[in-house]
Amino acid sequence: MTSPAYAQTFRGLPACPCQVTWIPALEHELRRQEIIQGTLGIAQMIGLYEASGNTHGDPNGAGLRKGGGFADFWLTGRTADRAVVVMRQMGAPATWRRPPNWDHDGGSEHVHSGMRGCPHATVQGLAQIWAVEHNGDGLVGNAPDPGPRPVPDRTWREGIEWAKEQETMDEERTREIVREELAKAGSLDNVKVDVGGENRIRLSEAFKRLFERTSAQ
Ligand SMILES: [Zn+2]
């Protein structure tokens, strides 16, 4: 198989450089929200299967844009629905959960995800981004987008920045809670947390450790 010049190997599969950057950032956010553990199962990025209607591109094709920005992930059920929300928030508007037999040809359940702002997308991929912008579901026919609606105009790079901001906000909130608890407790020197036997430690020490941990990041 001949891959496009820009193709890189990511987890053993051909991918465009945008995907090599975006997917690990996506996985970080999915883990942080406790939607997945570890990494995502990836069926394909740059196209391997003809049945994909060329949104993933054909590495052997002669088109100007040969494929990138569109991935299929092995996700099912509620996990898939939750992941779709995050992917759309992170700048992949053309993202849908495809249920079992989605193509009426025995197709496997998965999440199909297309990033905005990837210069390697095929014409068919760009058409799916256009479709979701116009409330379509990205398949042949007139079915509406099941949503939730993507953030208008957000690119995958902006999506990574958005995810980092969420993480920072959550950390700051944790610090704020610790500060409030410290203030409520007043003088902590005489307060002890009894967790039994040798492990008895002062509450002030417990808070101090928690505070140092959240501040160190
Ligand atoms: Zn790309």
Task: Describe this structure as you would to a colleague.
With 217 residues, this protein is α+β, with helices and mostly antiparallel strands. It has 2 domains: 8-153, no CATH class; 160-215, no CATH class. 38% of the residues lie in helices and 12% in strands. The protein has helices spanning 17-32, 77-89, 123-133, 156-185, 203-215; strands at 8-10, 13-15, 42-44, 70-73, 94-98, 110-114, 192-193, 201-202. The strands form 3 sheets. The chain has a 4-stranded antiparallel sheet. A two-stranded antiparallel sheet has the order 1-2. Strands 7-8 form a two-stranded antiparallel ribbon. It is elongated. The protein starts with 7 loop residues before the first strand and ends with a helix. Zinc ion (ZN) binds next to loops.
Could you write a compact summary of the structure shown?
The protein has 217 residues and is of the alpha+beta class. Helices cover 38% and strands 12% of the residues.
Which key features would you list for this structure?
217 residues, alpha+beta, 2 domains, four-stranded antiparallel sheet, binds zinc ion
H-E order: EEHEEHEEHHEEH
- Largest sheet entry: 4 strands, antiparallel
Total beta strand runs? 8
Total domains, how many? 2
- Small molecules bound in the structure, each named once: zinc ion
> Which descriptor suits the 3D outline?
elongated
Q: If strands are numbered along the chain, what order do they take across the biggest sheet?
A: 3-4-6-5
**What count of helical segments does DSSP give?**
5
The percent range for helix content is 25-40%
Low-confidence stretches: none
Average of the residue pLDDT scores = 83
Task: Please report the distance between the alpha carbons of the first and last residues.
Answer: 44 Å
CA radius of gyration: 22 Å
Structural class: alpha+beta
Beta content comes to: 5-15%
